[in-house]
Protein 1
Amino acid sequence: MPMARRLAFRWLNAVVRSSPPESRPWGDAMLRELEVVESDWGALSWALGGTAALFRHSVGRRLETIGRKAAGILSGVVIAAAVLTLSVRGLLELVPLLSPGSQLGNGPVGWMFVLVIPEAVFVVTAVRLWRSRRSMAMGLLLAAMALITHVVVHVATHG
Amino acid sequence: MGPRLRLSPQTLQALDALLEEPQEWTYGYDMSRKTGLKSGTLYPILMRLAERQLLETCWETTAAGTPPRHMYRLTPDGRRYAREQLRSRAKPRAARAAFGGAEP
């Protein structure tokens, strides 16, 4: 076997073996075709083209997975923000109606609406979603951690 | 069907080649020779077509000792899609020619 063809075969074979499983059948397909390419330099060109095709396929798949995860996390954070907004809105609307004279600021009712209820919702929802929608659950937990951190920093700086 | 397929001139060339004998299976290298597309261009197109269920793929059954080759042909959906796309691309070209416009 001439050197160019041997090199093409070895190169493409190594690329196929190191490809992710979902790209491998396509790599094997290109490897089989390599045997029928007429010219030796053509075989080398085929192998290099095949490398580019496999690389694009596997990178595309990885980006797709990363994009899906990022979208899940983002939707978790958006849901958390909506829950927090609703809870704070509830605090502002309900408390003056239920107990007209009460202070909203740092009192127990305020903490309940701003911290305890949203945190409980985030954690319970995240636990329930952990198996089916892990990235969304991670987004919720991320929001829960951000809220706690914000409250700790707020208490530490404002007393 | 999955997300929309990007219809580059190379994709149209591949669809055209696959439509030549739509019922027959074809090999990657034969398509490459027919269309002039290199493996680095042709295979991503085949992969995208297969992902969108427009292309069927199968491994050739061969006599013992001969390594099988991967074969391709358009699915019924793929044939319909390819015909529509090629026809819609051909229409403006025909209109330009009829009105004396230059080909791009």
Note: Chain B touches chain A at residues 27-29, 32, 38-44, 46-47, 57, 67-70 (CB under 8 Å).
Protein 2
Amino acid sequence: MRFIWLLMVVGLVNSQAVGAAYQSGVIAAFRGEVSVERGSEIIPVKAAGPIFLNDTVVTGAGARLQILLRDQSTFSVGGGARITIDEFVYQPKEKTGRLAASVSRGAFRFVSGKIAKTRPDNMKVKVGDVVVAVRGTEVIGSVQPDQSSIILLSGAIDVMSLSPECVSNSGGSSVFEIGPDGDLVMSAPPLADAPIFCSQSVNSSGFGVSVSSAGEVSQPLRIDFDEIDVVLDQLALE
Amino acid sequence: MPEPTVLKYCVAIKTLCVALGLNGLLSAQSWADYRPANHGDIVDAILANDGSTGIERPNSDPALIERVMALNEGRNAFEANIQSYRELSTIDLGYTDKAIVQRLFQTPRRTDRLLKPDQGRQVVLVEQILANLANRQLVDEILASNHGSLGPALRGLKELEARYQINLYGYLKFSQRVTKTLSHDVLRQKYMAHQNIADFDTSIQLAKKILNLEPSDTQIRKDLISLLDKSEASTLANNHRMTLALLEPVKDSDQAEFRVVQPELQRKIVDETNLLAIADDKNQLQTAEISVGDFETRLDYLAERIFQDPANLNLNLEYFQQQISEGELEGAEITLERILLIDPESKFAKILMAETQIKLGKLSEARNILNRLLASDDLVPDMRQQALNYVAQIEEIVSPITWRSSVGLTAGISHNALGRSDSGLVLFQDLTLDSGQADVDVAFNELNFDSSMAYRLPYEIPTTLTMRAFGQGRENDHEDLSRTSTIGGSISLREANNNRTLESSLTLAQTRVSSQPYANVASLAASLMTGLTESLVVGGSLAYTESWYQDFENVIANKENSGETLTAGLSLMGQIKQVGWSVTGKWSDSNAENHAASNDLAALAMALNYSFDNCRNTLSADRTWTRAKAANVFVSANPKKTTQTNWSYGGACTLEDFWTGVSVEPSFRFVWRDAASNILNYSKESSEYSLGVKLRFQ
């Protein structure tokens, strides 16, 4: 039992000074040039090296990286990617917690773990200018300056734009916050009369959305194999 | 084979040289005379395979195998061979592949998994095992005979390799017996020389050799870490950092790179090839001894161990197997991704990845991996075959079009084939007459075909358009019974989403009697099925059918039977273990030009279906109540009412791929029918039994 308590990892949104003291994940494996931006420091990563809250992991061209979180969520990114674990709280005994991450550049794949299984609302990933609420379990995509893509491989996702036309600006600079009941919520709530491009649900594998530079989310479309291959090639191990 | 006189000469030279202490002067050409008497059998066995005989694979020589088998006498030969294979596989396979092979050999495996060599492959494997074992023996014995003087023995071995196409020096290199002869000082000198000229690659190799001889040389280890960092071999560098940390415990804990090293990890670092790595961040979480009991499931326990030690290959493999056994395919794929990041060269891991991705439906990804694997020249034959099988499997799944065809032939006996009534009488204008029909058994045969093409439409909800052609003909061995046939086609659209299936179809068919058109039918139908629970499905259907009867010889006013029928059905289906069951209710309202041919119908059908392996048995019963809307005045003053009961029991087994792409399905069927009617002529009982065979083409 002592171990169970040791496993509890606690993080707080926007409290870097506190958050940085706690490990949220681990560099499970990597190839190529990968570094961690921790505050003003840039640290080359090592296998099994820890990832702390608000660490931004940056991969060089051609690099590959897999990050493992304690709830068994996994993030894989290709070369030229930036990923940050913004929020991670996990209680192994109850298998509950909160997970928020941001992919601001590059190709990515994430597979949700225990948190999304127990409380799907409590796993959210900011991908470029949209937030992906994960209802399990596997999503790939690519964040580029002109257009991003988000493709569902299994489970279901909701994609919400953070464009000013879609959300109120009351959230300030942070994207996520903790709601009164301890759940992970968006700091900037969606506008009631938001246009249709602000939010889409993708419920079928092989379907996805594209996000324009203005933050407009397309309707879910079947993504053909070639397009999926483009993303997968950026994550492929060869 | 060298001439005996040459051998004698060689032995004489060796004896002379040994006597003079000039072993090193012996020529490689006379390698055979290094052979002491006590290991002659093995050497003779190899010599028996003279290169001039053109034997392509001398290692499979029966005499050689026999010798090695003799060496294994007293041990469990099979176990010894497998053990040898495990050990020897490291010569040709990378570290990861070796670990996978070992794990797969150790673990009971499902029969449909890969790496199940066929009998021919097993024979080759055993031959390789034996031959490799023989080679090792040979090397060991030749080395032993030279009392550690490696030079001349090596020259002899090289010649032997060239002559008999066998790998001896590889084993020597693998077992590092070549490098051990160089002293620590010599290696250091060479190392320093290469360091001075910034030859990093050679420096790394030499540093590793020095550390093999002298693991406690911390200065060389520090240099090696620096060199490995420069060459971006960070995992290996971390291994050495960890070893260094163990060799030089840092007294000041704040500066310690490795605060926590579990005893298990300490053991692992002894192996240079172990790809273990450990975090070195000073803020690393404290770890504690953990046991399975601390976790709800073994999977959770392994996940936590992986979190602490993500680069531990064996742990990852164990985790992978646990994930597969628990159906956690997505997690298994991630674990394989991790393994391949650690060791990108592992072909076994790639095959396992493709297999996992096919199960996940990630066909494009699986195909990419397989294509890259197949492009490599050094893929072993059974792995190549496995990859090709998977590619074929993917091609079949990926294609949006599926063709299916079948041809069936049934032969049987029909009892009361002429439909004699139970009373043997006919009611005609209030008179009862003898029907004149005998209660006869008639042999019959049926031929049927069914061919369909299903096209998967590119919609979010899985939708299939199916076009089908079908036909059935029946011939009876009795002059009073006509030959009947039905030929038709249909087009249907099926939409299946989660637990709901919606299907609509249009069917056109023509029935012919004795090769003449008898009736044409067009039917438009729609059905909806939805799951109430995981094992209970409810379905409803609605069909509109238009019939056009044709003028037909000997049938008065056949055309007046034409009309329309509206049918509604409701069914409940379920599954209890291997037994499926269904209950179906059906109602129809039929209106023909001839009112006596119009009727109302109600039917209740029940069926039980039991499946095992590739066989299924079906027992069904149905009861139909039919009431004509008007009387046929030529038969009776009252409208006909009939209650018909059918019992049917049948079974079929499918022999998959009996021929390439063709499955064979033998079957049997027994049907009993009983009709009761208010008109005597329609109360009758009949039955038939038959045997059939169907060929399915895919």
Note: Residues 225-235 of chain A form the longest helix (11 residues).
Protein 3
Amino acid sequence: MTDDFDKRLPPDEEPEDDFDWLKNMPDDPSNPSSGDNLGFTGELSWRQDVEDAFDNQLDAANNDLPDWQRTDDSPQGKSTKAGGLGFTGELDWMRASGQSDEDAPASDSGLPDWLSAAEPKSTEAPQVPDADVPDWLARMDLMQTSPAEDENADEPLDDDPMAWLQQDDDSDFDDEQELEPAALADDMPDWMQSLRGAQPDEEEPQASASLPDTGALNWLQEYAAEPPPPEPEADLEPDFPLPADEPAAAGSDIPDWLSDAYSSDFASPESAPPSFMDEPELEDEELEPVSDIDLPSWLMDETSDALPNDLFGEFDTGMLREAAENGLPASPAQPPVPTISDEAPAAKTGITDWLQRETDTAFSKIGQDDFLNTLPDFDAQPHASTVGSGDQTYQDSEPEPFGAADGTPDWLAELQQQDDLTAEEMTTELPTAMASSPYDMPSDDDLFAGLGNALPAESAPAPAASGEFFNTGELRNIDDILSSYQDIETRVSDRTGTLMNQADFDMDSLLSDAELDKISALRESDERRAEMGELSADAPDWLSDIGVSVGSDDVSAAAIVRKQAQNERELEDLTDQLRALHSAGLELPSPIADDAPDNMKALLVGVPEIISPAPMRIGKPSLAENLVLSAPQREKINLLQSLVATDDRDKEPELTAIDVTLEDSPDLEAIAGEGAAKAAAPSRPARRSRPKIDRLLIAIVLAVAIILPFVVRGLRIGQLPPLSFAAGSPQAIAFDRVANLQPGDRVMIASEYGLTDAAEMDTTLDTLLRHIFARGARPVIVSTNAVGLLHAKNVLERGVVSGLDIKTGSTDSAGNVVVNPGTGLNRFGRVITPNVDYVVAPFIAGESIGLRTFSQDLGAALANDINGKATNLKVTSYNNFALIIVVAETSDDVRRWAEQVAPLTSNPLLIAVSSAAAPMAEPYTVSNRNGMLVGYKDAYTYRAILDAQAPLAPLAGSTSVPTVVPTKPPTATPIPPTATLVPTITMTFTPSLTPTITLTPSVTMTPTQTFTPSPTFTATFTPTNVKATDLPPTWTPTTLPGGSADIGAQGLVIQGVVNVSETVNMRDNPSRQGKVIAALPGRSTVQIIGRNEDGTWLQVRLEDKREGWVSAQFIRIIEPGTGTPSPTPVAYRVDPNAYVSLLSDSSYASGNDSLQTTPEATPEATLEAPIAPALAAPAAAPLPAQGASKPRTPYRDQRWYGMTMGLLAVIGIITLGAIINIVRGLLRRGRK
Amino acid sequence: MKRLGSALSTALVMVIGIITFLGLIVGNGLGGLSNVVNAFALPTFANAFLRLTVITLAITVLIGILNLLLVHLSRVFGRGKPFSQRINSLVLIISAIGVIVLGTLERAGVLTGSPAPTTVLLEGVQLSIESALAGLVLFALVYGAYRLMRRRVTGSGLLFTIVLLVILTGALPFTTPGMRVVSIIRDWLLAVPVSAGARGILLGIALAVTVAGARVLIGQDRSYRD
């Protein structure tokens, strides 16, 4: 804003010093640029304008209208005024600018920069004002300029000379116009500005363009009867920029009166800076100059007899009469003139009322005894005189500048001294003059009363008596006057207010008398004078004191500050404290950051170089103590803080940017060496960190409870998990799903757990993979967890596969692979090969979306494995997988697969989750299609079932494997083949089968299909223990090896489960016509002892030894186990038909005491004891029974016992804590 | 321009979202609608968009790794960083680069042997550390439960403690009659209230996802511009 001011003038026309505007006053009244220097004329120039207007009226001989009415007929941009007539105020600056009217917009010509900055910048030509019209009056008029006026620019705008009055008092001034006073704040007399500012609800001034020429007072009455024409809101709406930051920017140079005002009001959002700081960038509507002097028409109507000579000084009242006679008679046909107010109709309101109201209100605002005494006498003689230095000669009809007076601003004092009439005289004579008017001039009482009525009640305090006002002869300091504005101009934005409130600019000290005296002393020095130029005595003292220029370009707040910066004293001239402040300021961050808002930069142009704007901060100014508080003050604050104890004291205050900055700021007192040491802030004693004994004890107890069961058998309390799943449970369903896999089936396993849950979930994954391989199925491992995928790959390859695979390290001389005891062959009969027997697919990125995309093209997604090798999988959909298993650690993983994959397949979805995820994952197992395994407990049970099962036969078509011989040579004391070895490898069915068969003639056992004890078993026997339908149709007890007639004696038990939930009939013969002898409950277990020829009926035995026939479709055969564990190790020659041994897991072999190396086996023994599938393995695979066999998983039981003990410890700790805390709470309550 | 960009992005999201939505939700059994959708090959477009999304997500993983390395490189070579930070960052960078190099060599067949070095690192180092850290959670949880009502005994705290104790006690593998009762209560709690709550949460999630998707499709939610 201020930069714009500076750019107004060409460089060659820049004032040489701060007071060029005084020197460049036009000498020739007819030439606005001739330098009619009238000095700092202050706010009362409008009165001179009135006189000027009358002058023009008299000069206009052939025109009925006075100049101010004819102004609009003149070309825009040109002033018809013949120059300054003396007390013209700011208009003199216009002349001093040296710009021709043609070169610049009319509104800009001659205006001081601070004023021109507020001029409209649009290209719309404003109405040309009379050059002598006070700007504040012009703006008052412009505020109500309507488009109609603009369109009719050629027509006289001021048909009604009372338009200006109308603007003030009679219009619909809606709330949106409440900023209008701010627009007038520049050159309007401050007391009037205060009036405006205090009247936010003042009615909107109305356009005067359409008003006819009036002059008689009856127009007022007519005006009162008819409302003014409405105006578009667009033209009335002011558009003010945000002036919030400007006062803050100028804060350091704000005089005392201003800082005083801010001290109490800046914190309020409604507070406003003084008008000069609140300089808005006015838009066209606000700044469009008035077309002419808005003189009250009643003045036009006044006759020479009626007009008081003493009111208008040297004006010949005859001209008023002439004007009234020629052009200002009232016309009944004229549009009504607005009333002054609703409460005061025009018929009852005279000019004296108006003046009375205006002045009374103004006085009530600014102090009755201050300001009015500074007013010049209206009857001041504008004779030519020379004042001051004599450089400026004042012409006739011009008011003279004023000399200084003690205790008063110079310009005001001089004004007072040169007035011929005192204020009191004026007020006393004014009614007389009015009373003599033949045009029913209202009395002064009416005039002022009407004025008072025009003001809103809330903004117009009780008007003081005019007599009292004028009788006050003492002029006070302008600071007092202006400081009285604080009640009125209190609108300051929040930001500015906060800034001013919290930033500790010690304005008083900066602008203290002592400091100002120093400045004055410097200014008075020759050098200073040469630098600053001659300082006019007209300038207010406070401006003079701070050494700023109020020239044509520097009147704004920023300009003042900038000037102050230019006039900075040397550091040596500053006091120690100021020097300290200066040095501290140099260390502050950049005033305006590059990324600061544009409006911040715009509003603070020029200012940041002087003042470092403190960062905005909301909240209490807690940093005050850091900067300006003295030691005693700080002590008092500390005392108060200690008395008013709050929680905030205990909190570490959060430092803002300014906090951080000021924390490092120097101690001014220490630098200055003046103050005492800082009062020590109350420091809290350092809190000793107590060792948390309870936490330590809890940790120890837990650790001990978990570890001890591994080493102390006595602490292995509790029961191990069950060895079988409850029938129909989700776990049993899951097991069945895997158990029903057929060789060659593909199973998709989603390994969706990371390493944190590996300890819990690895057992589950491992067990499932073993079972899948045991079934001859081929797993395909996928994952949306990259680490989980790698870990699953390791579990598969390093754990499961290596355990199941053939050891290929050594062969005997015959080329046979030597297999260590405890190992076995996999069911594939060969080395398990990646991408043949299993696949580890690439990582699936994108979680749900990735899974969705993965599902769209399974074939492509599974074309290559994790290593980029071809998988040769021929899959097109999820239906190509017989089973999908999700091993997850969170329910989200389960949900992802249930949502994205499960709907795309008709096959079941098996879920294996951690214990923590089970509750949330459980809803997805609502269907019996989906089995569910939870945590380590189910994995334990699952594994126990697997361990209890007999090894399965190798798959049909499996590649041959070499014969396996014991790896260790016979020892020195070989144990000959024992008798126990033979029975274990022979199959003997129970004799009970025979009678049963004989009872059913349908079963025909042919000799050709009988078993023989021949050592060469055929593969046709192998599938018999897999499914009921696979049972050999020719089981005969006579062919059982070993000659045993009782299968039970051989330890072989074939069991089956009723695979429906309903009861199943057991009949006495294998047909539906058989008699029902029992009803088997759903999921019940029976022993299978035979079958019919076509395998559609199974002969079963109940626990009560009853036997009967059940339809095979309702029975699922459980893979056989044995009830008689054999401590004898197995060593045998393996042929392609050998069963896979799930017990040969090398990873668990170390803990398997029952499977010791059997070097005692001899070749003869192996030859004589051929492997008898389903009979040999059961001998080495005892049925897990509680305490009957040792666990095959290392520390499997210990882990369980450790968990049990840990659980007990957790329960105890939590219970103890709850009891202690409850007791403490009760005791605490009891004490209260 | 900013407003134009906003409008464009919103329009783009809406169009792609609707295409994807129709392409995925409209099957072949909706008669005319299915014909229209298939005529415009919307399912193909939908799948293409999904693939683009997955590719983008995969790239973000790569970008994340690179960014992590850059951050730690800056900490190693940056000014004013404490020595401990430099060491930590250096170890991280070396570990990352080492694993990348080892994996590459393994894949290329340069490094052979069993077990593979990367497997040793994963199973021997990372698995052990992560499992140990997971185990430490037990201590924190137990200590938190121990101090649950230290400050104040509230009804909710008391209820929480009781339920917690019932659940834990019911999990004990004891077969005494009293424990069986507790076990039954535990099973009931898990089967009824917990399961009901879990399903409620899942329903809420589903509804929220549906609403959020609908808001994006109609342009009411522009969270993607954040």
Note: Chain A touches chain B through 55 residues (CB under 8 Å).
